[in-house]
Amino acid sequence: MAEQPQQVSEQQVNELAQKVEEVILGEDGQPLSKKALKKREKELEKEKKKQERLAREAEERAAREAAEVDHGVDNYGRSAVNMSREKTETKWTALGELTAEMAGQLVHVQARVQGSRPVSGKMCFLVLREGVETAQAVLSVDADTVSKKMVKFATSIPNESIVSITAEVVKPDAPVESCTVGTVELRVRKVFVTSEVKVTLPFALEDAMHSEEACARDATLNRVGLDTRLNNRTMDLRTITNNAIFKIQAAVCQLFREYLTNEGATEIHTPKIISTASEGGSNVFKITYFKGAAYLAQSPQLYKQACIAADFGKVYEIAPVFRAEDSNTQRHLTEYVGLDLECSFREHYHEVMNMIGAMFVYIFKNLELRWARELEVVRRQYPSEPIKFDETPLRLEYKDAVALLRAHGEEMGDFDDMTTPQEKTLGRLVREKYGTDFYMLDKFPLAVRPFYTMPDPVDARYSNSYDFFLRGQEIMSGAQRVHDADMLKERIAAHEIPLESLEHYVRAFELGCPPHAGGGVGLERVVMFYLGINNIRQTSLFPRDPKRIDP
Fold first, then answer.
1. Is 477 one of the annotated active-site residues of the chain?
2. Residue 284: per-residue pLDDT
3. Which of 113, 244, 304, 362 holds its CA 20 to 30 A away from the CA of 311?
4. Cα–Cα distances in angstroms (integers) from residue 374 to residues 74, 359, 381, in the given order
5. Which listed residue (279, 325, 335, 351) is catalytic?
6. Catalytic residue among 112, 323, 481, 491
7. Does 332 participate in catalysis according to the annotation?
8. Given 471, 483, 525, 537, which residue is catalytic?
9. Which pairs count as long-range contacts for 155-159, CB under 8 Å and 24+ apart, including other chains?
10. What tens digit of pLDDT does each residue of 132-187 get?
């Protein structure tokens, strides 16, 4: 009879498995020798003692810190959410108001923490930012006000958090070159976080402020791509450069208003939902309007002219313009801010054209005088020369510009519309020949202008129309408008536009209308070319183009 195999109990299996687990293998996969095991035990014991010592030291340090009197405890912390509970008589000082003459004074400031740099457990530096200005603050442990815990707290404040600080103004040993306010330093007495950043920042703000020149010099500098910046536009707009750009943009609007108001013009506000395309053509956004359809205004053109027919004399508007152009160039947007104007004249449309030229001179001169600080900040990141212009702007006729281009080797017909490269070439040639970056180009071919443009009285192949150019690129297009109803109907028919779609527009001229001229200025283009910036999206607050509708 065959011998039966011995049964192995579950308990025996578990005991055997435990013994196998206890076998320690060496690097060669073999069990360690007794000598190796003893060595390993000593190493483990040594590491255990080290960890116990570190834990003991940490406990002792924590106990010392807990027992240590924090003499700065009332001078730092996180403020409660500001719900406008109280009003105080605190006098707040803007960073840009700090001067060396204020040395020794105690000031109260509110700003963002752009960065922090601990020097030791007893000292740290903060870079504060407010608008276009940055300043350095320092916390240094003393016997009365600043404690080690206060310094530790300051270094832990997340970048971009907002703080309220009380500090003494002091003169640094050497100018603080890294800050726009370099003649003073703030010696902090109190620091409270009033709004704390609680998420990871999409990028470091300093990385978004490097100039191309700096990046070329130092390949280790981080670059922030334009798409990343635009996708996080709120963060991007915090840079001192962007802050300055949009202060300059606001200044252009202010100066536009100032000049035209002084000229007796009335600011108007026209509809942006209209029943027909204001410029004709297909570059228009069609929208649902209840049970019908409507369009977003390509310009306030028809309404500006209606106001002239209503005897307003001179009108202007600052408002959005919508263009459904599937163009992804560096100078095109689907929505931009238009600075539009229309003015009646007595004898010749040059009365209006020259007034517009004088208006631009007024804007350019006042930007350099009244917004010099902002221009300095922008030019630090985007270096450019101030534009050259004459008190009386240069006027060229289109045929003369064509001749100038041909002399340079460009091939184009007398009545061809200029391409963007040709415009840039012309700008360079004009600067070389006439020493100006700003000029007026008059008498465009009639075929390349809108239906409401007045033909030239001598040669109907040309027109009483003009463009204004800055640094070789167009910033404004304008013309004398057709104000005679019969002539207007002829021009509408020539452009194959259904007359019934412009019925209300034509009716204004049938009631009698003075001769008039005007133009439309692209705000973002003016700022872009004036500052020498390469992409119009950087001068649009929240740009819209065929590929971007957010944020």
1. yes
2. 92
3. 362
4. 38, 21, 12
5. 325
6. 323
7. yes
8. 525
9. 155/116, 155/118, 155/124, 157/113, 157/116, 157/126, 157/191, 157/193, 157/196, 158/113, 158/196, 158/197, 158/198, 159/113, 159/114, 159/115, 159/116, 159/197, 159/201, 159/204, 159/205
10. 999 999 999 999 999 999 999 999 999 999 999 999 999 999 999 999 999 999 99
